[in-house]
TrEMBL record:
<feature type="domain" description="Ketoreductase">
    <location>
        <begin position="28"/>
        <end position="207"/>
    </location>
</feature>
<keyword id="KW-0560">Oxidoreductase</keyword>
<dbReference type="InterPro" id="IPR002347">
    <property type="entry name" value="SDR_fam"/>
</dbReference>
<dbReference type="InterPro" id="IPR057326">
    <property type="entry name" value="KR_dom"/>
</dbReference>
<dbReference type="InterPro" id="IPR036291">
    <property type="entry name" value="NAD(P)-bd_dom_sf"/>
</dbReference>
<dbReference type="Pfam" id="PF13561">
    <property type="entry name" value="adh_short_C2"/>
</dbReference>
<protein>
    <submittedName>
        <fullName>SDR family oxidoreductase</fullName>
    </submittedName>
</protein>
<comment type="similarity">
    <text>Belongs to the short-chain dehydrogenases/reductases (SDR) family.</text>
</comment>
<dbReference type="InterPro" id="IPR020904">
    <property type="entry name" value="Sc_DH/Rdtase_CS"/>
</dbReference>
Length: 271
């Protein structure tokens, strides 16, 4: 499944025929925030190919959400598409309750919703912008997870999306980087808290990936978008992220919690 976003980004690839599902998530009920596009859509499609039931929460892009729904259903999986705002505790709780009402529970929670906005100087960051970054990128993870944990059990899995920027920093994405650093610490702490319940908590730290979130650089500094790369000499694809989330969701990673998978094209993070 491929989509073309912008001439400065390569065509976005969500999943391809090389990925063969093997029933790793048969019958599992998966909830993905920010699941309508980018990495979230790729994860949804990979989970569906592994025979999971997939629910996504999206903010406002109805067309993109419907495209993801079609993709999930094309894999032969059940899909549930929920409009919501992860910056709202009530909205997060409602999304969880809708999944539980439909399928009876949640086995895998993927906190992926996020936003970023670049600034040349900290003085340009308004109070509202700073708060918005934390409301969407960090508070939303807390809200959804708190609600979902009421319906999760031993053997279940929580997966958060952080970023390479949490480890290497980014001079024009200070608020975004701060939230991603918070996610790293949150993941490690929560994984310890949930050990006695047998629920694993891990995270994925993508590097530069061809997704809609990068388009904020078009009106800020096109040179950043055009030069976005990695030691591999290219930007990553959402389809290259999806299998990592499958691994963390299924029992292949049963001895793994509080850890980070770094998918960044060779950027050394020492994290």
């Amino acid at each position: 499944m491929t989509e073309h976003l912008d001439d400065m980004l390569p065509p976005v690839e969500y999943i391809n025929d090389d990925y063969k599902g093997s029933g790793k998530l048969t019958g599992k009920r998966v909830l993905i925030t920010g699941g309508d596009s980018g990495i979230g859509r790729a994860v949804a499609l990979h989970m569906a190919r592994e025979s999971a039931k997939v629910a996504i929460v999206y903010h406002s892009d109805d067309e993109s959400a419907l495209e993801t729904q079609k993709g999930i259903e094309a894999e032969g999986a059940d899909a549930l598409i929920l409009q919501g705002d992860t910056a709202s505790s009530a909205s997060c709780k409602q999304a969880v309750e809708e999944v539980v009402a439909q399928w009876g529970g949640i086995d895998v929670l993927i906190n992926n919703a996020g936003m970023q906005k670049p600034y040349n100087d900290l003085s340009e960051v308004s109070d509202e912008d700073w708060q918005q970054h934390f409301d969407i990128n960090m508070a939303g993870i807390f809200y959804v997870t708190r609600a979902a944990l009421e319906h999760m059990k031993e053997g279940d899995s929580i997966i958060n999306t952080t970023s390479v920027n949490a480890y290497v920093g980014n001079d024009v994405l200070v608020p975004y980087t701060a939230t991603k650093g918070a996610i790293v610490s949150y993941t490690r702490a929560l994984s310890k808290q949930l050990l006695n319940r047998g629920i694993r908590v891990n995270q994925v730290a993508p590097g530069p990936v061809a997704t809609e979130i990068q388009e904020v650089f078009k009106d800020f500094d096109k040179d950043i978008l055009e030069s976005m790369s990695s030691p591999m000499g290219r930007i990553g694809q959402p389809r290259e992220m999806g299998p990592a989330y499958v691994f963390l969701a299924c029992q292949d990673s049963s001895f793994m919690t509080g850890q980070t998978l770094h998918l960044n094209g060779g950027m050394i993070t020492n994290g």
